[in-house]
Amino acid sequence: MRRILAIAATITLALGGAAVASGAQAKVPRAAPGHPTITWGGCANATLKARKAECGFLTVPMDYARPGGRTIQLAVSRVKHSVPAARYQGVMLVNPGGPGGSGLALSVLTDYVPKKAGAAYDWIGFDPRGVGSSKPALTCDAKYAGYRRPAYVPTTRALERASGQTLADFEAAFKQWLLDRGAQDPRRGYTPFLEASLTRTDDGLKVAAVRERGAGDSAGLKPGDLLLAINGRPVADYDAVRRAVGAYAPGKAVALKVSRDGQELDLSLHLSRPAAPVAK
């Protein structure tokens, strides 16, 4: 963990140091009129306490398009430089990334910079708006990933009313998401020739979703179908699908054999022109 923090601190110093150096020519007066100030005090965070950091809140507009409107407070921390004033280099602001990541305690990265180079800077950590100690903070359902999490799929009329979405809409959106997800990463099982998403099972390749009005949909392919063969060639994996359709041009009709509800069916499908390579 210390090694990771040291690497992160080195990168931060390398990127931020250039900005400090380039801005050293024109010094901006601190606490200029019209700029919010921070009242520094003690920190509640144990890590920051141990490092004797200072903490406070920076007041900023909720909407920068309306600077005179509602404001919020960002929680910030500071570990001040420990070198003589003549060697002071400026401020190092640490961005926690994310979105959704807390960065309040990241001011302690000063301790992880090699050769104590971080000691020449004031290190600033902060919690982005809506995160951690910033005010107001967003609240999330802590039970979402638990085994007894509330029902989020609108399977009843009450849930449909609460979510503003019908079960049919939810299923359609999920299927489209699955197809788009596969199209972005062909390793996930999206087969553009068939315009369907396949998933590996113990029984073989099962159709997970079919793009509406796509090649598979037009051929009668249904989610849940088990793909057995293409043009008489067994297809047990994605490579077999690629080999089975690779010799045919887009628009060419191929014969699919699928198993649906225990019965084998023969379908005729016109190959689509792939937007991405077939999954391997």
Overview of the molecule:
23% of the residues lie in helices and 23% in strands. The protein is of the alpha+beta class and 280 residues long. The chain folds into 2 domains: 114 residues, no CATH class; 103 residues, Pdz3 Domain, CATH 2.30.42. Strands 5, 6, 7, 8, 9, 10 and 11 form a 7-stranded antiparallel sheet that branches. It has a 4-stranded mixed sheet with strand order 1-2-4-3. Strand 5 and strand 6 form a beta hairpin. The chain is elongated and about 80 Å long. It starts with a helix and ends in a 10-residue tail after the last strand. The N terminus and C terminus are likely disordered.
List the helices and strands and how they pair.
Elements: H1 2-22, H2 46-50, E1 54-61, E2 71-79, E3 90-93, E4 121-126, H3 157-163, H4 167-184, E5 190-191, E6 196-201, E7 204-210, H5 215-219, E8 226-230, E9 233-234, H6 238-245, E10 253-260, E11 263-270
Parallel strand pairs: 3-4
Antiparallel strand pairs: 1-2, 2-4, 5-6, 6-7, 7-8, 8-9, 8-10, 10-11
Task: Offer a quick outline of the entry.
The chain folds into 2 domains: 2-22 and 34-126, no CATH class; 168-270, PDZ domain (Pdz3 Domain), CATH 2.30.42.10.
